[in-house]
Amino acid sequence: MKQSLMFIPTLRDIPAGAEIASHKILLKGGYIKQHAAGVYTYLPLAYKVIKKVETIIREELDAIGCSELLMSALQSKDLWTESGRWDAYGKELMRLKDRHDREFCLGPTHEEVITSVVRDSVNSHKKLPLALYQIQSKFRDEFRPRFGLMRGREFIMKDLYTFSTTKEDLDEWYNKVRQAYINIFTRMGLQFRIVNASSGQIGGKSSEEFMALCEIGEDTIIYSDSSDFASNTELCDLEEGAPSPDGIGTIKHAKGIELGHIFKLGTKYSEPMNLMFIDVDNKKKPVIMGCYGIGVSRVLMAVLEQCNTDLKVLWPESIAPFKIHVIPMDKQGTEGYNKAMELHDHLQSKGYEVLIDDRNESAGVKFNDADLVGAKYRVVVGRKIKEGIVELRNMATNETLELPYEEVLNYNF
Ligand code: ATP
Ligand code: MG
Predict the structure, then answer these.
(1) Alpha carbon of 171 to those of 231, 293, 390: distances in Å?
(2) 0.85 cut: is pTM over it?
(3) Looking at residue 143, what is its pLDDT?
(4) Secondary structure of residue 22 in the 3-state scheme
(5) Beta bridge mates, 41
(6) How far is CA 185 from CA 101, 155, 306, 413, in A?
(7) In the predicted model, what is the mean pLDDT of residues 53-82?
(8) What is the rounded distance in angstroms from the CA atom of residue 397 to the CA atom of residue 413?
(9) How far is ligand 1, taken at its centre, from the CA of residue 139, in Å?
(10) Distance in Å, CA 195 to ligand 1 centroid
(11) What span, in angstroms and rounded, lies between the C-alpha atoms of 194 and 208?
């Protein structure tokens, strides 16, 4: 891919208002463009990453038997009145009226819609269980949109809903999704903790949050330094250094970014919205539901927070926009430039994702921009190309090799 065609509108200066590293990188690096508070366009570089994040999510959810659909973002007030949330949701709900004065909202979440979709076609235990998800833009009129994609008013979410006939089946889905989330965030190279978010009164775990460990996180989590125990401070307020309640290790505090949330809903929506099924015993019962979200656009920021050093980016390979960045030092039309382009074409034809900086910019500009693109490998085609030598930098190990051009053509990246 030619950098000149990619549309990466980098900025010379970091815009005022960007306080955290990930936000600075996204704006300076030409990943996103804001046009209202908490409302962004994902430019090609960011969208490439988002699509990879979505692919990982789809692979892991499809593997456990979930099906993808796409619901409408526009939702009628009637549905929200049925669940009782039209009034309860408050000011975060983006409300609007059509030309006939009928009221709608832009979906902040989709329990109402999915419940109505399923209730019209599922009436027997024979048609259950089901696990349906979508990846879609959500709308929430957040009181304080901030930190770029971290707390947007329009943001991308993956939301999954499960429908079961028994509590045991819900538990089974919950555990499968929990494991899928572990796989998803691990594959994205994130450091995270699973935090108990339920009061625990119902017995067992009924709600957990996946938290990326980050200094700029809005939540404080407490965790054991030697076991899986973790909780948010609202539920359990233990001092740092105290013994962990599970008897293993001592308590530490950390800041976290909520990446995802898994939740046993039970019959919270199926009862008021009349999602019923006829069970094996011929009795009519409410369907038992679970809901599971991932903040897809927020994930981008969490990863960036963890994978930058002084605003220099090194994306985890699984979601990097490019694997190889070819940087010719010479201007277009020169021998060096042509050799670099040949190298790019060849590596791309081998299936690698390659970006070539074909712009007539100074070396300084090119390297600064490359630090924001964050590819693992950088191939610099400079003066030594006259002797058939190029420079290969592994940005993960900081190793720089001077290699014959032919060797790089056949290099196993
Ligand atoms: P928060 O406590 O951060 O407001 P929430 O509890 O409202 O999150 P959920 O309703 O569980 O979030 O939504 C599922 C996921 O969507 C969250 O785990 C988070 O990753 C993401 N998310 C929620 N609100 C936003 C937002 N305003 N901007 C970007 N991502 C969001
Ligand atoms: Mg919220």
Answers:
(1) 20, 17, 56
(2) yes
(3) 95
(4) helix
(5) 33
(6) 44, 19, 13, 24
(7) 98
(8) 13
(9) 11
(10) 15
(11) 7
User: Exposed (0-12), middle (13-18) or buried (19+): which is 82, by Cβ within 10 Å?
Assistant: middle
- 134: Cβ contacts below 8 Å, ≥ 6 apart: 68, 69, 70, 71, 110, 158, 159
CA atoms within 13 A on the CB side of 330: 17
CB atoms within 10 A of CB 87: 9
Both tokens assigned to 55? 């692919």
Please, what is the average pLDDT of the chain? 95
Answer whether 208 contacts ligand 1 (Cβ < 6 A). no
**Which H or E run includes 45?**
helix 44-63
Out of 40, 140, 157, mutate this one to test ligand 1's pocket (max ligand atoms within 8 Å of CB): namely: 157
pLDDT digits (tens, 9 = 90+) for 330-383: 999 999 999 999 999 999 999 999 999 999 999 999 999 999 999 999 999 999
Gap between the Cα atoms of 285 and 270, Å rounded: 9
Q: How far is CA 128 from CA 17, 122, 268, in A?
A: 49, 8, 18
Contact 87, 181 (CB under 8 A): no
1 CA → ligand 1 middle, Å = 34
Q: What pLDDT does 202 receive?
A: 46
Predicted local distance difference test score (pLDDT) of residue 207: 93
What is the C-alpha separation between 289 and 401, in angstroms, rounded? 55
Task: Please tell me the number of the ligand nearest to residue 109's CA.
Answer: 1
3-class secondary-structure state, position 351: coil
Cα–Cα separations (whole angstroms), residue 349 to 73, 170, 353, 373, 410: 39, 46, 9, 21, 12
Q: Among positive and negative, which fits the CA dihedral 330, 332, 335, 341?
A: positive
358 Cβ neighbours under 8 A, 6+ residues apart: 2, 3, 4, 328, 332, 337, 341
Q: Are 132 and 118 in contact (CB under 8 A)?
A: yes
If DSSP codes are grouped into helix, strand and coil, which group holds residue 230? strand
Phi then psi dihedrals of residue 39, to 5 deg: -130, 125
Q: How far apart are CA 152 and CA 139, in angstroms?
A: 8
What are 210-249's pLDDT values in tens digits? 999 999 998 899 999 999 899 888 778 889 999 999 999 9
pLDDT tens digits, 237-283? 889 999 999 999 999 999 999 999 999 999 999 999 999 999 999 99
